[in-house]
């Protein structure tokens, strides 16, 4: 029991110590950044966030055991980067990457180990004959009543005004070739803008599956995703040209188109990439990219490994060297 | 000399004891016990006289404006375990109503600015925070002057949002908390040569809160992960009740005030605000605020 007159100073000190004690205890401090800590952090983040261990049949614990023994506190940053990159490559996922200030590591095996099946130069020089129009990011031409359009990258914005202007011209054609070969993806909004002009009515196009918490198999129930049709619809026969480099948002576009009855897909299987990539910054400033979701078709099939074409055609090296594109020629033939 | 040692030893002993106790409580993550930040046992004798703040039945109204600089450290483990920090400007407005035994305060605070990662300054985030709170405190004891001890509660809404630059697809994080808090204030009015100066420390700790964060793997609420950002329309659907085990916050607001004339008051303000969300989206944030407050007494 204190007499208030005697403990004025005591009370002030008490208040100060309480306040400062809390601050010291609870203040935010930096995490450890030695090589072992960084490796463990990278593995743990992937363990908690990556969405496709089961689908890709990767034993992530075994991967840890295999690669962790290569890392010590003495491992230099360059070595550590290489070890981490090799560990991430076991997932064979083009959406998984590691970026430092000096280097970038990612998986490109979804297309590098396959034939290219596309040459932009051959298209422009020998088929469009350097005579084509552009609307936004798209180049196009109408030949003998058949339209051809090439969309190089869904990173390039295609506005509603541009799309409407394009289809205003294409609506007179008897068929349309949509070429998305070598389109490695980009902004989903551009995919929706383009696809909505092929859609007659509101359609379920895919399901999204999200990680719901840190457990390796903790997922949300499939979340349906619908697209509404645009005001200007192209309903004539369409041939969609694809190759292995068609990835991510392009893969989504091919999935949406594959479900339309007036669309045929020709070329090679797409590269896949159904997961949506997110970022995470490690304690040492390296940026990690990883697939955080999974995409299922309307039939609930995971599209990570790509979409098969209706008609499988390739381009041989000789054909490419002589400037020919038999995939394009076959598509044109199908629409005559 | 012995008399001085005797005077301060209990405070130091109690101070360390309280810090240890707090550390234990934090570690145990007691969720049902109210943490009382300041425990004072007083006894008053006939030697001390009560000093009233205002005559019986009258209220003192004061409007305050306070620009401030906030030093913020934040770790949001959805995006990084590295600390982002920086100093950002803020502004607050408050209305105080003080009566003989009860004081009420309505306070609104806003701050916005950029923070960067300490390890690599090229990574930036845009931080916005908003606070609105109503506190009602009751004076304890009648004969404590020049000390004043008040205790009571408050209702607060805290919202913080961070937009991470150079992140693809998912770059937004937010925390919303509407809380019922235990609050206490200790103040001391200086006498003699320092008459007119007053120092006060106000603490608040949430007891029960309704919290909302984005879902684990998106920028939107659980009910609609495709949506981005805080959805006020889904406030009831997507908020959950939480106590200390999931949401812990402690705020310490200290002022050194000086009345200037009968209607004006200036104050130096130091405020420390720490919170943590121990959920699937773990967030820890510490904010140090320095400000200068001007009050107009009506």
Describe the structure.
The complex is a heterodimer of chains A (336) and B (298). With 336 residues, chain A is an alpha/beta fold. Chain A has 12 helices and 15 strands. In chain A, the strands form 3 sheets. Chain A has a 7-stranded mixed sheet with strand order 4-5-6-7-10-11-15, sandwiched between helices. Chain A has a 4-stranded antiparallel sheet with strand order 3-2-13-12, with helices on one face. In chain A, strand 12 (277-281) and strand 13 (287-291) form a beta hairpin. Chain A is elongated and about 65 Å long. Chain B has 298 residues and is mainly beta. In chain B, a hairpin with a 6-residue loop joins strand 4 and strand 5 (124-140). The longest helix of chain B is centred in the N-terminal third of the chain and has 27 residues, at 2-28. At the A-B interface, strand 1, helix 1 and strand 12 of A face helix 1, strand 1, strand 2, strand 10 and strand 11 of B. Strand 1 (2-3) of chain A pairs parallel with strand 1 of chain B, so a sheet runs across the interface.
Please give the structural blueprint.
The complex is a heterodimer of chains A (about 325) and B (about 300).
Chain A: E1 2-3, H1 8-26, H2 35-49, H3 53-56, H4 60-68, H5 77-89, E2 97-99, E3 104-106, H6 109-112, H7 120-127, E4 133-135, E5 138-143, E6 146-151, H8 160-170, E7 175-179, H9 188-195, E8 203-210, E9 223-227, E10 238-242, H10 249-258, E11 263-267, E12 277-281, E13 287-291, E14 293-296, E15 311-312, H11 317-321, H12 326-334
Parallel strand pairs in A: 6-7, 7-10, 10-11, 11-15
Antiparallel strand pairs in A: 2-3, 2-13, 4-5, 5-6, 8-9, 8-14, 12-13
Helix pairs in contact in A: 9-10
Chain B: H1 2-28, E1 42-43, E2 60-76, E3 84-98, E4 102-117, E5 124-140, E6 147-164, E7 172-189, E8 197-212, H2 235-238, E9 240-242, E10 247-260, E11 264-277, E12 283-297
Antiparallel strand pairs in B: 2-3, 2-12, 3-4, 4-5, 5-6, 6-7, 7-8, 8-9, 8-10, 10-11, 11-12
